[in-house]
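Our platform keeps sequence and structure together, in a single record for each protein. Such a record has a labelled line for the sequence and another for the backbone structure tokens. Nothing more is needed to write down the fold, since each code stands for a local backbone conformation. For reference, a complete record is included directly beneath this paragraph:
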Amino acid sequence: MNDQAEALRNLVKQQELLEEGRITRVVTVTSGKGGVGKSNFSLNFALALQRLGKKVLVFDADIGMANIDVLMGISSSYNLYHLLKQEKTIWDIVQEGPEGLNFIAGGSGFKDLLELSAEQLDGFAQEISKLHGKYDVILFDTGAGLSKETVKFITAAEETIVVTTPEPTSITDAYALIKMVKAMDVDVQFKLIVNRATDYREGKQTADKISLVAEQFLQLELPSLGIVPDDPHVSKAVKRQVPFTVGYPGCDAALAIEKIAKQFLEIPERHAVSSGVKGFLHKMFRLSR
């Protein structure tokens, strides 16, 4: 019995050491306009990262249009609102989706975040800081467009994935968002995803066009993280309320997401970037006060 207790203590200690040494990458996923498949990308990208051995949390930060739980067919009991009102702890609102993926459901809470007292902000920060070292990647699926809430998350995170489609309006709005953030003189590493491309050629042309303009007029490097083809299995999965990488793992979109996840995990070897959850919180609340 004593041997079992000792073994359990050692296991807990090993887990704590692992978490202390884990660098949590905080990433926002955004888009210049709605309807480009941003949330669907975030969910399936998170699942692909988890299949590659990473511990991932998806944080639905889309005000008014929160739908990560809907895409999974899960009815969420608690969300950020309950945390802000100090009714629940961070671990109460972390829920489990397909394949054990952790997620926090969205809601109206993010607007309240901008109007909290200093004491409430400190309480919120203390709860969020508990995520430090618990995950390899935390993905904030933000709202589309140039809202002040979305900008707050983009400028606090160190990495931002911008999702666009080949449509001219989507390209224009994605560029406008990047331009506005660049004008704020904050250190954000942008990466581009072209979603719903007719084929690889169209996707690459779209990515090259945006990257060229960003480099020419903003002096900004905008690498492409990958291209996701337009795939009928995606809309089928949405109707079934199941992630397409789960419902149709062999489809073209799922294979593209898998490739993107592998490329994303190679980035730390080239760019040592993350200051983790604590750095994210420092920048978020420094900007809000």
Notes: The chain has one domain: 24-288. Residues 2-21 form the longest helix (20 residues). The CA atoms of residues 60 and 106 lie 5 Å apart.
